[in-house]
Design a protein that fits this description.
The complex is a heterodimer of chains A (115) and B (111). Chain A is mainly beta and 115 residues long. Chain A contains no helices and 12 strands. In chain A, 33% of the residues are buried. In chain B, the strands form 2 sheets. In chain B, strands 2, 4, 5, 6, 9, 10 and 11 form a 7-stranded mixed β-sheet that branches. A 4-stranded antiparallel β-sheet of chain B has the order 1-3-8-7, with no helix packed on it. Chain B is globular, with a radius of gyration of 13 Å. Classes of the chains: A mainly beta (115), B mainly beta (111).
Chain lengths: 115, 111
């Protein structure tokens, strides 16, 4: 069974500051993927970044980076130089990495960027 | 084309109605998914189609009936729904082992 825990229901950050959203996971799969999605108020889930369990380096995508600490089972999302448009709900998720995936999401963190 | 489209955007239906939600992707993805998302909750997986065959059914009530007519299309047929089925229904697609791309969703209200 897989489980994602996001312990921060809400976060408030000043524009241009960096922000870290916490995510811990639990899985019995030997190979797995970790994902972060952004969901604005419009409802669409936007893929941000992916980390495979066997990847040696932390994933980065523009202003997004994933701080992957396998021994601690954590996969925190770091957003550098936050912008007003970053205000949204953020979900961490995990799945197996073979075949069709069953994504399991955490409860999410609502991020608000203040001007 | 890196887009998943869903129609309609909004749907209001009575408990005796029959309606369908539609999802389409042209990215050549061979896996397609339906999720249900209640307000202030994460999405919950309902169905997975892999190579046009149903591979996962998360014990969804039979009033929800999925259909995959071809590799680009995914439908969700709705019949005799309950008010508690009101939610955002999200469709997604992916290549094997890759990230899922989501559509904008259909906001369903059952009266």
């Amino acid at each position: 069974a897989q489980k994602i825990t996001q312990t921060q229901p809400g976060m408030f950050v000043q524009e241009k500051e960096a922000v870290t959203l916490d995510c811990t996971y639990d899985t019995s799969d030997p190979s797995y993927g970790l994902f972060w999605y952004k969901q604005p108020s419009s409802g669409e889930m936007i893929f941000l970044i992916y980390q495979g369990s066997y990847d040696q380096q932390n994933a980065t995508e523009g202003r997004y980076s994933l701080n992957f600490q396998k021994a601690r089972k954590s996969a925190n999302l770091v957003i550098s130089a936050s912008q007003l448009g970053d205000s949204a709900m953020y979900f961490c998720a995990t799945s197996t990495i073979q075949g069709a995936q069953k994504l399991v999401f955490g409860q999410g963190t609502r991020l608000t960027i203040n001007p | 084309d890196t887009e998943v489209t869903q129609t309609p955007k909004h749907l209001v239906m009575g408990m005796t109605n029959k309606k369908s939600l539609k999802c389409e992707q042209h990215m050549g993805h061979r896996a397609m998914y339906w999720y249900k998302q209640k307000a202030k909750k994460p999405p919950e997986l309902m169905f997975v189609y892999s190579y046009e065959k149903l591979s996962i059914n998360e014990s969804v009530p039979s009033r929800f009936s999925p259909e995959c007519p071809n590799s680009s299309l995914l439908n969700l047929h709705l019949h005799a729904l309950q008010p508690e089925d009101s939610a955002l229904y999200l469709c997604a697609s992916s290549q094997d082992g890759q990230e899922q791309f989501f559509g904008p969703g259909t906001r369903l209200t059952v009266l």
